[in-house]
Amino acid sequence: MYIFVILMLVCVIHEFYFMRYESETVINNSYNPRQTILASRNIRGSILSADGEALAQTVKSKEDGSEKRIYPYANLFSHVVGFSTKGKTGVENIGNMQLLNSHSSLGSKISNELSSEKNIGDNVVTTLNVAVQKEAYLALGAYDGAIIVTEPDTGKIIAMVSKPDFDPNEIVDIWDDLVDNTESSVLLNRATQGLYPPGSTFKIVTSLAYYRQNAADVSRYSFNCNGSFTYEGNRINCYHGSSHGSEDFKKSFAKSCNSSFANIGVSLDLAGLNSTCEDLLFNQDFKLDYTVANGKYVLGTNADSYDVMQTSIGQGKTQITPMQLNMITCAVANKGNCMKPMVVDHVESYEGNLVKQYNPETYAELMTEDEAAFLTDLMTEVVKTGTATRLQNDNYTAAGKTGSAEYNGNKADSHAWFTGFAPAEDPQVCVTIIVEGAGSGGEYAVPIAKRIFDAYFASVD
Amino acid sequence: MALVISDLSKYVIVIFMAIYTLEAFLSFAIRSRGYLEGLYYRQIICMFIIHFVSFAAICLETSDLSYIVFYGFQQILLFAAIALNRAIYPNVNKLLLNNMSMLLAIGFVILTRLDYEKSIRQVTYAAISLVLCLFIPLAVNRFQDIIPRFGWVYGAVGIVMLAGVLLLGVATNGSKISYTILGYTFQPSEFVKILYVFFIAGMLYKSSNFKQVLLASLIAGLHVIILVVSRDLGSALILFIVYVAMIFIATNNHFYLIASLLAGAIGGIMASRYFSHVQVRIQAWRDPFSYIDGTGYQITQSLFAIGTGGWFGMGLYQGDPTAIPYVEDDFVFSAIAEEMGVLFSGLLVLLCLSCFICMIYVCLKLKHQFYRLVSAGLAVTYIFQIFLTIGGGTRLIPLTGVTLPLVSYGGSSVLTTLIMFSIVQGIYAIEAEEGERRIARRRKKLQRRREKEYFETEEGEEA
Question: Which residues 25-84 on chain A approach chain B with CB closer than 8 angstroms?
Answer without folding.
Answer: 26-27, 29, 31-34, 37
